[in-house]
Amino acid sequence: MKTTWIVILACLWSFSLSASPWESFAKPNRLTPEAIGSYANGCLLGAQALPLNGYGYQVLRSQNKRYYGHPNTIAYIERLSAKARKDLRTHLLIGDMSLPQGGRFSSGHTSHQTGLDIDIWFRLADTKLSANQLKLPKPKTLVDMSAYKISSTNWDNRHFRLVKMAAQDEEVARIFVHPVIKEKLCSLEGANRTWLRKVRPWWGHNYHMHVRLKCPQDDASCVDQKPPPKGDGCGAEVASWKPKPKHNVKTYRGSKDSTKVEEKEPVVIAKAKPKPKKILPLQCAQLIDQTR
């Protein structure tokens, strides 16, 4: 019995070390809506909750309380979902957005802090998911990771139309997808390639796309990301993400019982410079101070 309690206390101690103070907020504040700071170092004033029962979408894992966003974000999701329902005959599955007052998650993301980031799963819900399926959803990857190619089993041409539809909205700054998905999108588009500039390759986005909106026009304390590089990002740029093949280690034949491996020169690893510590914007720090 004593051992059991030691284990429980250790788990609680571990959780307290990793928990984010932003997760203690149960609801949004009543301030005028504003995104504060940068996507990975900020907070959110006057957040709105995405209605859990909306037209053309369903909210995943609502128990995590990550379905809040800037009013612009809520409007964008509702706008995109309505188009997806009409044109693609499906429901979008909305993953992580932001916490009730923004800020850092204890796990899963470093961004999503200002209410302007949305994860939209590639799993298309032509039939609505049940309450249990929404609570513990199963993702559907579009990438055969071991072969570094699109999964022919899971890919649907509607995925191309969905990403294009999402990117063509003027409020979108970027959409992150796995490099293989970006390459696929590049191969399918014809002359109208402007929207592809917004679609950026990034690891880990094989089962969902991460949509990032621009800072709202009147939010003076919101920090936009630099615009993507010029061009559509296809060709050599997306090809540069492909993992380099591993070189076989040369061996030399000796006796039947022994094989000598070629000696290599020692590799000198340069020490990485420590990243500068992020300073939380004053308005965000004040929100945290109110809880202490």
TrEMBL record:
InterPro entries: Peptidase_M74, Zn_M74/Hedgehog-like
Gene3D superfamilies referenced in this protein's UniProt entry, alphabetically: 3.30.1380.10
N-terminal signal peptide: 1-19
Keywords assigned: Hydrolase, Metal-binding, Metalloprotease, Periplasm, Protease, Signal, Zinc
Pfam families in alphabetical order: Peptidase_M74 (PF03411)
Listed name of the protein: Penicillin-insensitive murein endopeptidase
